[in-house]
Design a protein that fits this description.
Elements: H1 2-10, E1 20-21, H2 26-32, H3 37-59, H4 64-85, E2 90-91, H5 92-124
Parallel strand pairs: 1-2
Amino acid sequence: MVLILMLTVFCRKLLDVREFHLIPFRSYWYVWEGGRFLVQVCMNVLAFVPIGLLLGCAFGRMEWGKVLAVGGGFSLLIEVLQFAFKRGFVEFDDVFHNVLGCAIGFGVYVGVRWLMRQISPIAGGRSE
């Protein structure tokens, strides 16, 4: 989380103005028009996959709602800091994609945990 804060807030170039874009899914119009926003969208999702995965590993049976709240809260913190320090644009899409990444990471954790439970009785039942 500290690494993400450093990359998204403190290591960014200082902007001249504070700017925000709260129109939902605005970045998809730029992707559709051939802009480089597809890379930004993917990076926003991928950056938060480890957070969802780590939340699952750290807290085990955490509920989906809590995972999404933590991911969304951390993403909102980043957006507020970017606005306060003039280090990026505040965008609805960033928060959405960060929460999506967090959900994917937690989904991977849940899937692996389920798979391990399915394999465990089979492996444990053999006595050779």
